[in-house]
Amino acid sequence: MPKKKILICDDEIGIRESLNLILKDNYDISFCNNGQECLGLLKSGQEYDLILLDIKMPKLSGLDTLREIKKEKPGMKAIIITGYRSVETAAEAINAGASDYIVKPFNSKDIIKSVEKSIG
Questions:
Q1: What CATH number has the domain bearing residue 96?
Q2: How many domains does the structure of the chain reveal?
Q3: 55-58 CB contacts, 8 Å cutoff, 24+ apart
């Protein structure tokens, strides 16, 4: 059975590397640096089971990217990752269609649990 595909969209290479180390054994991982690149990959026909989106990125925020994704692919699963612990931001992410919300710094158990909850 092929591995499920996850797109990690974060402008910080350290976060992308950390998420890759946590998830690469069980999932097929791809990367992009910002929301515009993420939308470009999706529009080019790339298919993913889950997108991990940083909330604060240059060019297009994670929330704005998520809203655009949901217009085109309403069933797409996405988890918002942020360095800001805020009830308002969490509510905004969930209202925009995120399946979960993770605060940095995160631990591997939280990431795995959230990903498994979102896509199994």
A1: 3.40.50.2300
A2: 1
A3: 55/80, 55/81, 55/82, 55/83, 55/84, 55/89, 55/93, 56/82, 56/83, 56/84, 57/9, 57/10, 57/11, 57/33, 58/11, 58/34
